[in-house]
UniProtKB/TrEMBL annotation:
Family of the protein in this entry: Belongs to the binding-protein-dependent transport system permease family.
Localization: Cell membrane
Protein's UniProt name: Glutamine ABC transporter permease
């Protein structure tokens, strides 16, 4: 069924910031930005009659760009946390996530947090993974190094500069499934769901359009189709 575009956003262009490499949510394929987040925001925009200009800034940079009003919104596998809700307004949740630890494939020395004593782990600056790692680092006696993007973090672990990475488990699982040289050794931690964010009290019409569009994509089955496109395991 056709949806009547929301009059208050129709014809407008919104600048949306995202992470650089966070497959399967945002990543480049043949130079083009693709992934679950990209399909969602583009489909919702088309359905609700607005345009988007996507800026692939990196996660922490995207949040800072939003806070300083350089962009209208962020979609970046961004977890809906209490701290962030103090400064951002979030859409309805669209994906359940959480943090997990991974190590270099074949590394038999790190099988749990207890093995991290005296070691350095890596996490993304400004992410839930960094917050989680920092929350247990004193208990387990390790140091946390912050880097800007997932690809660099994974390289750091594979190069042996850090013994482990803390990142979102759907992203780790996707990479590991593609033989990215990592493996997970611990259970996933409880985490928050992803939401689309705007600045608190601003762009309320954009947020409403996102929520209306997401609900429509769920009811038509397109939301599930998008997830299946990126998450289905090869046979
Ligand atoms: N979901 C995590 C967070 O919001 C990480 C997001 C990301 O790395 N793009 O902190």
């Amino acid at each position: 069924a056709a949806v009547a575009p929301r009059a208050d956003v129709a014809g407008q262009t919104f600048v949306i910031a995202t992470d650089t490499t966070f497959a399967p949510f945002e990543y480049r394929e043949d130079g083009e930005l693709t992934g679950i987040d990209m399909d969602l925001i583009r489909d919702i925009a088309a359905q609700q009659g607005f345009s988007v200009e996507i800026q692939s800034l990196g996660f922490d940079a995207a949040l800072q760009a939003l806070q300083s009003n350089q962009v209208d919104g962020v979609i970046a596998g961004m977890s809906i946390t209490d701290e962030r809700q103090a400064i951002f307004d979030f859409s309805d949740p669209y994906f359940d996530s959480g943090v997990q630890m991974a190590v270099a494939e074949g590394d038999t020395t790190i099988t749990g947090y207890d093995d991290l004593r005296g070691e350095t782990v890596v996490a993304k600056r400004g992410s839930e993974g960094e917050t989680f790692a920092n929350s247990i680092k004193d208990q387990y006696g390790f140091a946390v190094k912050a880097l800007a993007d997932s690809a660099t973090m994974y390289d750091d672990v594979k190069a042996g500069n850090s013994v482990a990475v803390f990142d979102d488990y759907p992203v780790l699982a996707y990479g590991i499934n593609q033989n990215n040289g990592l493996m997970s050794v611990t259970e996933k931690e409880q985490g928050s769901s992803y939401g689309f964010a705007v600045n608190k009290g601003q762009n309320a019409e954009l947020l409403a359009a996102f929520n209306a569009g997401l609900a429509e994509l769920k009811s038509t089955g397109d939301y599930q189709r998008i997830l299946d496109t990126y998450l289905e395991q090869p046979a």
